[in-house]
Design goal:
By secondary structure, the protein is an alpha/beta fold. Helix content is 31%, strand content 21%. It contains twelve helices and 16 strands. The strands form five sheets. It has an eight-stranded parallel β-sheet with strand order 5-4-3-12-11-10-9-6. β1 and β2 form a beta hairpin. The longest helix is centred in the C-terminal third of the chain and has 18 residues. The radius of gyration is 30 Å and the shape is elongated.
């Protein structure tokens, strides 16, 4: 079983803990603060554990030429890519307002730091964990700096404060397993509290490229960390399957309306879908049950009516030595020896007279 750790205050992941469900708002808020707040409340109402955004310090994330290029996409919010990104980016003060709103609503709040300066800001406002987007998963300098950031979970011992690494959730889109091994080694040197998410970076994601079989592969490759899933496929069934395969963190993009402008909306879940997903995940978790195979109390009624026992195939005399042709298995009243023990009766002596079809019990057998 994977190691467990506290991802958010009071909320552990891994081990037998429930799957941690992240509602990825991203930039589906259309650059509107009030829509962003509605989406935070929606995520809470639907049962998600965390509302997540994407934070960029635009001039640090993009080159000047990248920002100046013309942007003619039907999803564009401005004539250049820079104008488009600036429209969708909230200020530091707006992020603090959203964080406060999430606290009031009662849902964890974080964001993907899309560049090193964004990570600095998220560290400053003390998000519970850092989310690493797939585009930065092979950005080793970024990973090292992020992994070294002290956590909000500060251990206070007398007059000393020991800061542990702030937890990290790392997507694996566009990466190879070789790269993920490098990522693991890089982060493990500085921070024990991180998780990998199986992810394919396509929006929406064709089902044949989901590759859920990578979840158990990740579990074998990295047995000491929890493994999760970040999905961009349509619908909820694949994400529920991911949890059944052992995903301990699940991230899905969410929207208030799939028809809105923006390339992520088509791969996002509307409120009814998110609520259904959360309910289905909690149902699957309950259904996973115990790995111990045994007769359960709920089976007692069925066993009482249909459970079979060893009975006499023909009349038996006290003192007879039993052979297999003297015995058979039937639904009997009362219950007697279990059918799997029938061969153990051969060559034993019966201590009472029995009629045909009479139940054979332990007390009737002499070693």
């Amino acid at each position: 079983m994977s190691a467990e750790f506290e991802l958010c205050p009071g909320r552990k992941i891994g081990g037998s803990n429930p799957c941690f469900i992240i509602a990825e708002i991203g930039q589906n808020h259309q650059g509107d603060l009030e829509i962003a707040k509605k989406m935070i409340r929606m995520a809470k109402d639907c049962g998600a554990d965390c509302a997540k955004f994407q934070k960029s310090e635009i001039e640090h994330r993009f080159t000047k030429l990248a920002l100046e290029r013309l942007y003619t996409s039907p999803h564009a919010w401005g004539p250049t890519y820079g104008a488009h990104k600036h429209h969708l980016e909230f200020s530091h003060q707006q992020y603090r307002e959203l964080q406060q709103f999430a606290n009031e609503v009662g849902i964890f709040f974080t964001a993907s730091g899309m560049d090193e300066m964004a990570v600095e800001f998220l560290h400053e406002i003390n998000v519970p964990f850092f989310k690493v987007a797939s585009a930065d998963t092979n950005n080793i300098p970024y990973l090292e700096k992020t992994a070294k950031k002290g956590s909000s979970h500060v251990l206070k011992l007398m007059f000393w404060c020991i800061c542990v690494g702030r937890p990290m959730v790392i997507s694996s889109g566009m990466q190879s397993m070789e790269t993920m091994r490098c990522v693991y080694q890089t982060i493990k040197q500085h921070n024990p509290n991180f998780t990998f998410l199986q992810c394919t970076s396509a929006y929406p994601l064709p089902i044949e490229h989901v590759n859920l079989s990578l979840i158990p592969e990740f579990q074998k490759e990295f047995p000491d960390i929890p493994i999760g899933y970040s999905g961009h496929e349509a619908g909820i069934h694949v994400s529920v399957d991911a949890v059944a395969l052992g995903a301990k963190v699940l991230e899905r993009h969410v929207t208030l309306d799939k028809s809105w402008k923006g390339s992520d909306h088509a791969a996002s879940l509307e409120p009814a879908e998110l609520a259904e997903l959360v309910k289905a995940i909690r149902t699957v978790e309950m259904a996973m049950g115990s790995p111990v195979k045994q007769m359960l109390p709920c089976e007692a009624s069925c066993h009482s009516k249909l459970g079979k026992s060893v009975v006499a195939r023909k009349p038996l005399k006290k003192g007879e030595t039993l052979t297999l042709d003297m015995l058979t298995v039937k639904v009997a009243e009362p219950h007697g020896m279990r059918p799997e023990n029938i061969f153990k009766l051969v060559c034993k002596k019966i201590t009472v007279d029995l009629e045909e079809d009479a139940t054979i019990t332990d007390a009737m057998i002499k070693d």
